[in-house]
């Protein structure tokens, strides 16, 4: 039976930021969604309430052992003022896969999506309208049982918050410098790399901090066992164009299954551009570069959509990719994906879900 979402409107509304001041994830809307779980009772009491702090027991499991998962997607508004989501059912599917990995009870995906749509509808006037801006949606689950034993929590909260975000590229899509990470790893097979769970991001901070000091935007992560094979770039999936063919690391258990990654593969296939998911070594990329066959490299994820790589540093090798400018495929993917999201390109794959 579909549960009724209880609605409590905010008595006062916050002032909205100017489009020009929008950053990422700093400002939150007037409302939030929250729902509880207790073992034996299941998920209950879904409600939209004024955005507010949580009150949790200091012994809540999430604070100590990180039993938690999250998602990230965006709401866009068209020129006509219509609010829409991009493939949100994929995020709900992944939320449950992350839940399974972290021993968190599954959510009803259809209900969770209807809650997100309702919340976005309530705060619809927070979706910024300037080009490239959007409303970032952050669903997450936390373990709230007060218990210091290492065991799955018997209580949880599923929460959704919204944040208006600025255009990722303020001066047009721009290539970044990336350092290949030889010491630290993001994930290993058998670990939690495939789940969107807090610990993966906490453990990535050190490597990111060290390369940022040397002027790199992100690290390129290698596999955790041999440190030979490419996994991801920062918190994005990664693609290379070598001698006319686009390649991306095959999902191997330690790579996050990106919605953008899947969309890129579908578009490339639709355009008749060869695309292969397989194991790719850093040595292969280096050899392709030496042979003049490394034509493009780019990351793919919800935040940036497509992030071209202009330079790759690996040991003593500085590899400049496509003269350090955005490649043709990266640009075409960026324009098409954002066009579909903002409603200026035809939604040929039925990816768009309207928020009524
Ligand atoms: C979220 C995420 C991605 C990209 O996933 P999208 O669904 O495309 O946003 C890729 N890698 C990591 C590690 C991520 O956390």
Automatic annotation (TrEMBL):
Signal peptide residues on this chain, from the entry's feature table: none
UniProt KW Nucleus keyword: no
Alphabetical list of InterPro entries matching this protein: Aminotrans_IV, Aminotrans_IV_CS, Aminotransferase-like, B_amino_transII, BCAT-like_C, BCAT-like_N, BCAT_family
GO terms, molecular function: branched-chain-amino-acid transaminase activity
Cofactor(s) demanded: pyridoxal 5'-phosphate
This enzyme's EC code(s): 2.6.1.42
GO biological process, one term: branched-chain amino acid biosynthetic process
Enzyme class, UniProt record, top EC level: transferase
Keyword Transferase: yes
Catalytic activity: L-leucine + 2-oxoglutarate = 4-methyl-2-oxopentanoate + L-glutamate; L-isoleucine + 2-oxoglutarate = (S)-3-methyl-2-oxopentanoate + L-glutamate; L-valine + 2-oxoglutarate = 3-methyl-2-oxobutanoate + L-glutamate
Pathway: Amino-acid biosynthesis; L-leucine biosynthesis; L-leucine from 3-methyl-2-oxobutanoate: step 4/4; Amino-acid biosynthesis; L-valine biosynthesis; L-valine from pyruvate: step 4/4; Amino-acid biosynthesis; L-isoleucine biosynthesis; L-isoleucine from 2-oxobutanoate: step 4/4
Stored Pfam families: Aminotran_4
Record keywords, A-Z: Amino-acid biosynthesis, Aminotransferase, Branched-chain amino acid biosynthesis, Pyridoxal phosphate, Transferase
Modified-residue entries (N6-(pyridoxal phosphate)lysine), positions: 196
Domain of life: Bacteria
Annotated family: Belongs to the class-IV pyridoxal-phosphate-dependent aminotransferase family.
Stated name of the protein: Branched-chain-amino-acid aminotransferase
């Amino acid at each position: 039976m579909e549960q009724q979402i209880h609605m409590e409107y905010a008595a006062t509304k916050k002032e909205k930021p100017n489009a020009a001041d929008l950053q990422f994830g700093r400002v939150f809307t007037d409302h939030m969604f929250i729902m509880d779980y207790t073992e034996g009772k299941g998920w209950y009491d879904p409600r939209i309430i004024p955005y507010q702090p949580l009150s949790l027991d200091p012994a809540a499991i999430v604070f100590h052992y990180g039993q938690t998962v999250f998602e990230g997607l965006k709401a866009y508004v068209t020129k006509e003022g219509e609010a829409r989501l991009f493939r949100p059912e994929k995020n709900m599917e992944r939320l449950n896969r992350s839940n399974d990995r972290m021993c968190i009870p599954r959510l009803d995906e259809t209900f969770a999506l209807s809650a997100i749509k309702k919340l976005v509808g309530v705060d619809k006037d927070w979706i910024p309208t300037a080009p490239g801006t959007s409303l970032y949606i952050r669903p997450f689950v936390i373990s709230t049982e007060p218990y210091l034993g290492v065991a799955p929590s018997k209580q949880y909260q599923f929460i959704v918050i919204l944040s208006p975000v600025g255009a990722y590229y303020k001066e047009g899509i721009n290539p970044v410098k990336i350092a290949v990470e030889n010491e630290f790893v993001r994930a290993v097979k058998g670990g939690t790399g495939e789940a969107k769970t807090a610990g993966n991001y906490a453990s990535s901070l050190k490597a990111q901090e060290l390369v940022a000091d040397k002027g790199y935007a992100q690290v390129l992560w290698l596999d955790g066992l041999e440190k030979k094979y490419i996994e991801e770039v920062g918190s994005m999936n990664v693609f290379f164009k070598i001698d006319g063919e686009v390649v991306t690391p095959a999902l191997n258990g330690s790579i996050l299954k990106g919605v953008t990654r899947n969309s890129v593969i579908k578009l490339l296939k639709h355009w008749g551009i060869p695309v292969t998911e397989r194991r790719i070594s850093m040595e292969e990329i280096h050899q392709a570069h030496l042979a003049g066959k490394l034509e493009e490299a780019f990351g793919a994820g919800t935040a940036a959509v497509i992030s071209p790589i202009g330079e790759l540093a690996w040991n003593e090798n500085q590899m400049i990719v496509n003269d350090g400018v955005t490649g043709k495929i990266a640009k075409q993917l960026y324009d098409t994906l954002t066009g579909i999201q903002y409603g200026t390109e035809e939604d040929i794959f039925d990816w768009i879900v309207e928020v009524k």
